[in-house]
Amino acid sequence: MKIYVSVDMEGISGVFGWEQTGRDGINSEYEKARHLYTQDANAVVEACKENGVEKVVVMDGHNGGHNFIIEELHPDGEYIIGYSRRDILPGFDKSFDGLILLGFHAMAGTLCGVLDHTQSSKTWFNYFINGKKMGEVGQEAVMAGGLGVPIILVTGDKTVGKEAKQLLGNVETVAVKEGLSRNCARIIAPVKARQMIKEGVARAIKKIKEFKPYIVKPPIEVKIEFQNTDVADGYERNGWKRIDGRTVVKIVDSGLKIL
Fold first, then answer.
1. Is-contact 136 188, C-beta < 8 A?
2. In whole angstroms, what is the distance from residue 74 CA to residue 45 CA?
3. 105 classed as catalytic
4. Which residue in 145, 219, 240, 252 could disulfide with 235, CB within 3.0 to 4.6 Å?
5. In terms of pTM, does the model score above 0.85?
């Protein structure tokens, strides 16, 4: 059995503020969050190996893709890190049995979603696939579904778990915090959160045959509404069709081309 793990920062246990994410520059809080990020990833690798997974590939998907504390990584995983990637999910293909989304956040505009945003907290406003509003969970579901691979587990705050279930139906979720506002959360101690994540992985692996890929048949309409017109200008120059001042659209022939 092979499992691919896509990791983001905003839904990691103990993370609640932008200063922890490195969005606005490197600082001591970001360095602490890197440790939390790495240890949550290690919990997934450990749980996968304990439940019979032969190969676990973990992709550092936050910001520039250089957030893991490499010296702390679990020895039983394989890790994808670094910049200038040719693919959104490097090394991911139809040979994987399942995709785990670790540390994800709710889509932009979600009430009490901790650090809610879609793709860019500074420039994106709404994102749609065939007219359906989605966040980053939806984006990865469509890409994985294009290869016939299901999402089996989503971890983050309560709102992203709700979003995942509404979109995917049958999926395991683990809530490691509850948002009280965008930048305030009721958290669980990270050591307990990591145990909950391990239990979630075990549940997902044990019933992996029950999960179904999220398939969107092409052609696929992708529409993005930005916060400002200048960002839309750039997309228009790159071939997207301009709908209005802040909105662009394109048609793609594969779920792997939606970003």
1. no
2. 7
3. no
4. 240
5. yes
CATH placement of domain 2-217: 3.40.50.10780
End-to-end CA distance of the chain: 28
CA distance 69 to 214: 32
Q: Which amino acid is at 98?
A: G
167-176, long-range: CB < 8 A, 24+ apart:
167/134, 167/137, 167/138, 167/141, 167/214, 168/141, 168/214, 169/212, 170/210, 170/211, 170/212, 171/211, 172/200, 172/203, 172/204, 173/200, 174/199, 174/200, 176/11, 176/12, 176/13
Active-site residue (options: 62, 74, 105, 117): 117
Angstrom distances, CA of residue 45 to CA of 59, 74, 153, 192: 12, 7, 13, 16
Q: State yes or no: cis peptide before 219, omega within 30 of 0.
A: yes
Domain boundaries, the chain: 2-217
Contact (Cβ atoms closer than 8 angstroms) between residue 44 and residue 56:
yes
Q: 30-68: per-residue pLDDT in tens?
A: 999 999 999 999 999 999 999 999 999 999 999 989 999
pLDDT digits over 157-169, tens only?
999 999 999 999 9
84: its two tokens: 């200038």
Strands 172-181 and 184-187: antiparallel
Res. 84 pLDDT band, cuts 50 70 90 = confident
